[in-house]
Amino acid sequence: MKKFCLLLLAMLISGSIFAKGESSHAQSRVATWQFSPSVADMNYAGKRHLDREWIPVISTSYRLSSDWRAQLLWGHLSSQYSAWGNNRNISGWVAMLDGIYSLPSYKWLHPYALGGLGMLNIRPRVNSDPSVEMNFNAGVGLEHQFSRYIGAYLEVRDLYTPNGGKNDWMGLFGVDVLLGLM
Q1: Could you report the per-residue pLDDT of 76-102, keeping only the tens digit for each?
Q2: Can you say how many angstroms the Cα of residue 44 is from the centroid of all Cα atoms in its chain?
Q3: How far is it, in rounded angstroms, from Cα 44 to Cα 167?
Q4: CB within 8 A of 134, min separation 6: which ones?
Q5: CB neighbours of 38 closer than 8 A, spacing ≥ 6?
Q6: Which regions of the chain does DSSP assign to beta strands (E)?
Q7: Which end of the chain is more exposed for a tag (fewer CB within 10 A), N or C?
Q8: For the whole prediction, is pTM greater than 0.85?
């Protein structure tokens, strides 16, 4: 995980160095792809009895209009189940399909709201929970473009699982790499 965080930091620094002489582009053009490696602070609902963890996340998004884009996100889970003296390793994944709406910009910050559907897979099963659970997620974020191609973002998401009423949440920090600009 340290190497992944250092890679993100290096991409962020190199993006700001190469941004010299270019104007900051608030929003990318329509019909562009965006690739985003990031790290997420995954905070599980208390009912899950899982330890909080930092996970690697990769997402890709496609800009549908000047305000809307569609995003697909995937992250790898690896935690400790720590209930009733029964410590064991847990692994799995989280996947989400979201719609992202760009809000009005403020100077160099570009806020957005997001919402969509997701799936959380935890192996081995915890208690009587199914191994794959569907969730609804919603969140807000801020992004900043250092250049036409490199940016960074920070966001917070609430993941609500209707089965058992579990509220997990995750905070993400990542680097945006824009593709398809002419």
Answers
A1: 988 877 665 667 778 899 999 999 999
A2: 15
A3: 7
A4: 117, 118, 119, 161, 162, 163
A5: 8, 56, 57, 58, 59, 153, 172, 173, 174, 175
A6: 33-43, 53-63, 68-83, 86-102, 110-123, 132-145, 150-161, 166-179
A7: C
A8: no
| Cβ pair 8, 154 in contact under 8 A | no
Calpha distance 4→38 (Å, rounded): 8
107 C-beta neighbours (distance < 10 Å), count: 8
Neighbours of 54 (CB within 10 A): 15
- pLDDT tens, residue by residue, 39-58: 999 998 887 777 788 999 99
Q: How far is CA 91 from CA 13, 27, 64, in A?
A: 32, 36, 34
- Residue 135: helix, strand or coil by DSSP? strand
| C-alpha to C-alpha distance for 37 and 31, rounded to whole angstroms | 20
